[in-house]
Amino acid sequence: MKPSGTVLAAWRLLLESHRRLASQMDHDLREAHDLPLDWYDVLHQLNTSGGRLRMHELSAATLFSRTDCTRLVDRMAAAGLVERERASEDRRGVYAVLTPAGKDRLRAAAGSHLDDIQRLFGDHLRAEEIAALESGLARVVNAAENLAAT
What we know:
By secondary structure, the chain is α+β, with helices and mostly antiparallel strands. It has one domain (12-125): Winged helix-like DNA-binding domain superfamily/Winged helix DNA-binding domain (Arc Repressor Mutant, subunit A), CATH 1.10.10. Helices cover 71% and strands 12% of the residues. It is built from six helices and three strands; from the N terminus they run H-H-E-H-H-E-E-H-H. It has a three-stranded antiparallel sheet. Strand 2 (82-87) and strand 3 (90-98) form a beta hairpin. Helix 1 (5-33) packs across helix 5, helix 2 crosses helix 5 (100-120) and helix 3 crosses helix 4.
């Protein structure tokens, strides 16, 4: 079944809004905190997961490919924001671990990043539109997860 014109228009706007907002947020984080958006995402995911994740878990949480995630963690480790740690229970496994410096950088950038989310996204939508977006996009994500699991 082919999508309707309305579905195609909504899809295009979703892609365009993501591209534009991510680009602006990346610019703002770099300017204010010398921190790229993808680095912020890694720091945030590690912080919300208790400070450490296996590399494959971090890749899934950030939506980066495993190769891209590995390269990103390598650069962040060189900057002292994360460390790699061998898994004691599985010698082949590797954890990405948030360092105190990484936690400090995340904390310093979080306020302005949240302000950007409100300014660039939240301020342009009514409460009912936000609720509809959340509900609809949650269903799309759940359906995609179910497809990936099969």
